[in-house]
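Lab notebook, entry 382. We have the chain sequence and a SMILES string for S-adenosylmethionine, and the next step in the workflow is to get a structural model of the bound complex before anyone spends time on docking refinements. Request logged below.

Task: model protein plus S-adenosylmethionine, output structure tokens.
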Amino acid sequence: MNPIAHQPDSLPAPSLAALAQSDALVALIRTEIDAAGGWLPFDRYMERALYAPGYGYYSGGSMKFGLRADDGSDFVTAPEMSPLFAATLARPVAQALDASGTRHVIEFGAGTGKLAAGLLNALDALGAAFDTYSIVDLSGELRERQRETIEAEAPALASRVRWLDALPAQFEGVVIGNEVLDAMPVRLFARIDGVWHERGVAFGDTGLRFDDRLVSAPQDIAFLATVEAEHDADLAADGIASAITDDYVTERHEAALAFTRTVCTMLTRGAAIFLDYGFPRHEFYHAQRVQGTLMCHYRHRAHGDPFLYPGLQDITAHVEFTGIAEAGVDTGADLLGYTSQARFLMNAGITDVLGGIDPSDAKRFLPAANAVQKAVVGSGDG
Ligand SMILES: C[S@@+](CC[C@H](N)C(=O)[O-])C[C@H]1O[C@@H](n2cnc3c(N)ncnc32)[C@H](O)[C@@H]1O
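Result returned:
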């Protein structure tokens, strides 16, 4: 059990209305915890905190995306920072449409619609042949925001955009998702006194808190054996023979794996491109990653308390990309490649896209050059 502070003084306080909405969500979650016998797995808590209709972070009206804390936003993504990201991503998307002879794009988790608007314009400028651009987002609340962005920034192409309530059984075209896999709920596991527990959520005197239960399901035991093997191999590489002992916390990404299987089964022809924070398996279950990768974002501050203002802050976990690749390959898909965002953008020609901007136009060129620097150098190689 790990009760943690719920209101760090250093973070800006939400409005009274926002706090009331968060309290209402906590009451809903508490009812569900009680009905389940006092404990919910963390992935169910995370799903409620992010997507409970009307109350979750992505479905309850928070500002979410933006550049600064004082505009009420919590984090920024690459397509929000610069149009160069979409203009660069459009190149491999156009290439995949052409190579597969398909004419449709589906974007999952379109956020504010910035990436969609940028991609529509850039695909058009590249002369890519596409008929429809479909958006699937768990958050119905974001749909209006996406429509406004696309109508303002890509008005001539807006008629090709449609929003899907359910996935088509079959799809031919190019699938994209930027920072979507890391917004999917994860289960948590913690090794305590040498024994694996599943870290779930209970309601105690101080409110929501972590609560750890012994792991007994065979599939979880098998999964944790893989985690231990990766961990031990990493130590062995340094000549240290030791198993995981205490206080090692990690995540299991069942929702992202199931999503990948569904998308790859749906995709009968074309390609899927997912960009996200994450690592291959041997780095994900690395001996030094003792706290796992769960992270929360509130007003552009990152912290580790998922029970702070439920519904008002983002909760995310890095992606274990080896599992994602295996999930796709298991459905019969081919793995086209896996690389860092920096290399992907370089290979896709981000410097050529920058070269297309007149350097004497300082107003456009300087932020663009800065964005390239951030995307290529700042995003690192991992
Ligand atoms: C961190 S935001 C990223 C938004 C946008 N792609 C960007 O880069 O700015 C995550 C988005 O994924 C959506 N999402 C999460 N799970 C999803 C799923 N299974 N299907 C579709 N959208 C999903 C959320 O509603 C949210 O809009």
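Notes for the group: The longest helix spans residues 16-35. Worth checking against the assay data. The radius of gyration is 21 Å.
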